[in-house]
Amino acid sequence: MLDAHKRELSSTNSTRAEEAATKMLLEKSFVVITGKAGTGKTYTAKNILVKLRKVRKGIPIILTHSDEWRQVDPIARNIILLDDVFGSNNLEIMKLSDWEIHFDSLYECCKNGKMYLIISCRDTILANIEQKLQKYKLFNSQSFRDNIINLSSQEYALTAAEKTDILMHFCRKYDVQVIEEDVTSRSGGLNLEERFSRVLTSKSISRISQTNPFIGFPQTCFLFFNDERFFRKGVEYFVRANLHLKDTISEMKRGNPQEGLVLFYTFLEKYSELDCSHINSEQFEKLKQDLDVEMEVTDIQEYASSLCPAYLTKINGDADRFTFQHATIFEAVMQAFGRDYQSTFLKLAGEKLIWDFATSSNYSQKSEEIVLKIRREHAQELADHLLKHSYWYHHKTMEDEEFAVVVLEKLLSTDDLSPREILKRCSCNEAYHIVRELIKRFHTHSGELNGIPKLEPRHLSHDDLQHALKWAIWKGSAKCIDALATEGQLDLHKDILYEDNVYMTPLTYAGRHDTSGKSVEFLLDKYNVSCDSRDANANTIAHRAAQFGWNKIMKRIISEHSSELSKKNKRQLLPIEVACFYGQSEVLDLLLTNNACPLEPHILMKWTLFGLRFCPLYPSQDVYLDEVGEIKLSEELSSTTEGMFKETFEILEAKYPRCFQSNIMNTVDAFGNTALHYCVLNNLFSLFSFIIQRSSSAVRDKDCLQKVIRICTYLGRVEMLRILSKHSKIDETVNGILGFCSEIDLIRKENLLKCLKTYDANEQTVFDNPQLENEIRNMLKKHK
């Protein structure tokens, strides 16, 4: 695919955006190429891949699904393009979630200079998720905004000269003649553009280069040169390209119904991929009947081929498989056919397609968001589809109050869920319109005697609202908190929540499960709830902010409630110690920068080491010391990553360089393990390399080194052994493995054999003594 792109690239000049993105990539190893639909994001990214392959001997790789990243060697020299990985048309939450688990490893690969990373996505999608992305190191640096190349921005939008270059490229590619001026024909008085379909004048080229088509100039050019109907319109087509595209596809319903049928069928297929050898005959017959088109299944391939390359493209050159040429074609087909055949769409479309694009008629469409608004007469059908998903609460249509009532009626019409259960589920999932409607319909104070509810099963008591409030605060559903407080008349300033014989304030509960801190900020800002609250383990909001990395809240505590930073919890831990344990480097940096309750450096090192022992932590576990001083974890509660601990160590190194170098390898826990041991045990390769580089002079304890080598050998950590062999004597590495041979078990034998084949940068085996290698192999034979 890149080779074909390379041939096409040879006839075009680099744009400003392409040159800026290439420079940024070479300097920072990471760039985001964004812009509106059709601006050439993927094309620009592929240009960069082709050019960098010449400059840097790396492997260009294009990834579109998160599972593909697992097949990439993270330490190889790769040039990676993540193309439309957050959604092609709109944001796809599931795609984003699939990639989130890889952001930290991508960051580490970029940071160590092993990999160049390009991400392409629409500007509307990036704006929608930018705040959420900031919690990841890859996106939250101060210079992240400088890593974005927006092809629609004034700075990087195509200039008239660049547009002319693109036009001339298409003219050469499609054999279109360009003449210097209009020439009047000898007969009929017609100019050449009117007489011949494949001629453009220099005046037309100049006028076209001044236009700014809604769907992006490169995509507009592609359609212009591949559909005669557009070409004949000339400059006018570029002025109203998006409307001409929609009108042309709509006209197919009358003028070319078979082609229109093929486009609509392709749109309804899974992943919008048409496979002519596997046609769903039943669905195709229903579609023919609804669209009133006469056509045989055997004719599909012929009509699909006639729609290439303007509207469809062959998948990998396969004559039977087609997909849309561009996302803008998909969107135009959806609007043209989905708008007029909504019942057909809801009946035949896949659940994912409906979930991604169908909305209620009253939905407030965001700028440039691609949706298909379903008319009121089909609202019941839409509700049925959405309720098939267990996460229906999060669908965009739940922002429409009228449609939310339709969904609620559906839920109440079954016996599966009571109003109490619906209230609980909606409260913790931001379905605030349903929460308000439930309170209006079912909440009443009548029938209660001495606090004991005497209500009908479908009624909601005050206790039910309190319980729902707990869930709303736990999950950070700010709007539901507001709905329960206002409609349900709950007082958030009282200790209304009760657990384990301890009354707990809303802020304390927010810290238990709302790892984003959203509900905490909401309660502090709107209801001015006090920070002076503790849970059963005496954790304050400062402890929770340190645990979950709530930087904004910690800044507020430092400036307004600094006394909270000196309070210890039941386990005698200060917030700064909690920050070290969970690897919350930014919170630690805030506390150290503001001299907020500083401790001795070796104590901070100790707690960072304790946290490293459990890295990566399961979603947030409380930490405490037992009676003998051994570290323990309680119930699951934030996630910590290798990169966070690495940055924590970097902050400690910058703040206390001398203490850091002397303590990084000397700080041990109750088991006599150092940070290096836990890096090996938990396979934290990047952090392992960091510690070795920073403390190579301190790695002199032979017992410590032998133990690390044995663990590496036992677990088959080949790359870690390779690093150790460069920072210690070769005999020490070999002797460490020999010492392990006396303890080897059959299960780990393959790992040892793999370690024997470890190579350094010069492709030489680290075992320069063949006799020792043979001795190890002879010892292994005893275990056969």
TrEMBL record:
SUPFAM superfamilies: Ankyrin repeat (SSF48403), P-loop containing nucleoside triphosphate hydrolases (SSF52540). Keywords: ANK repeat, Repeat. It comes from the Eukaryota. Coiled coil: none annotated. Signal peptide: none annotated. Residues 15-170 form the Novel STAND NTPase domain. This is Novel STAND NTPase 3 domain-containing protein. It comes from Pinctada imbricata (Atlantic pearl-oyster).
